Amino acid sequence: MTRIDSTDAHWPGVLSALAGDEPPQLWWHGDPWVDRAAAVAIVGSRRATAAGMAIAHDMARELARQGIVIVSGFARGIDEAAHMGAVAVGGVTIAVLGCGIGIDYPRGRDRLRAALLARGGAEITEFPPDTEPRPFQFPQRNRIIAALATAVVVVEATERSGALSTARWAVDLGREVLAVPGPLHSPQSRGTNRLIRDGARPCLETADVLDALGLAAVQQDFVLPASDPIVDLLRGGPVHPDSLLGHVEGGAASLATRLAELEMSGAIRSLPGGLVEAVR
């Protein structure tokens, strides 16, 4: 973990768009920021529907396959689905935290965090290490999400969703704002539908995001390995990850990363009690 400020060579220059609202420093865990062709923030409700989670995951996966960095807030729901989609295809994803690095929040996301870091991503925050999450910190971090992104996509949002503050920041910063429309009577779609009413670009597919960025899709082939030794071991039934340590070089950290990658790809799944099993 590294503390950086605006004089550091790896400080994200795009944050200068925040002007007087630029954070005085950032704590950075992972690969340093480098100039990117494009970064897309995918954000939305913590209490997302299964459909919303699938949309966020698939959109992040497809954009990551195009070499686009996925930015989100590492919260439950839409945020985690977006990070997972990028990780599933080995893409780079940036988690902007509403707490300090080192806090287990949200709980139980160690595998996702490990995979995110292993794939060239990073956790960043303006809050000092070990700062506990507090409600006001999440809207505050949203300006950083918007500033890092070339475009912001809101997948699901209630009328009071924090994702709407990210969209407002994006508008103020001159970023593209897209929203996924939803059923008129769904609480999770009221925020996104109103964004569209107020001028956000409707987002019906990944091509809409690429079009907003002025990019054309590049065909990318991604094929999961036909066989994986970890998956093969799990086909016999649920096991505790500790029993797999001898089958991965690099110890517990490498195993956690590998399990996260397999879970994001859909090859394995977690079970209560910390067990994992292959998806048959």
Task: Put the structure in a nutshell.
The chain is of the alpha/beta class.
Structural class call reads: alpha/beta
SS strand fraction: 5-15%
**pLDDT < 50 runs, ≥5 residues:** 221-225
The rounded distance between the terminal residues' Cα atoms is 39 Å
Structural shape: globular
Number of helices: 9
Helix content: 25-40%
Biggest beta-sheet profile: 9 strands, mixed
The radius of gyration over CA amounts to 19 Å
Question: How many individual β-strands?
Answer: 11
Written as H for each helix and E for each strand, in order along the chain, the element string is EEEHEHEHEHEHEHEHHHEE
Main β-sheet, spatial strand arrangement: 1-2-6-5-4-3-7-8-9
Mean pLDDT: 89
Walk me through what this model shows.
With 280 residues, this protein is of the alpha/beta class. 35% of the residues lie in helices and 15% in strands. It has 9 helices and 11 strands. The strands form 2 sheets. It has a 9-stranded mixed beta sheet, with helices on both faces. β7, α5 and β8 form a beta-alpha-beta unit. α2 packs across α9 and α3 packs across α9. About 2% of the residues have low confidence.
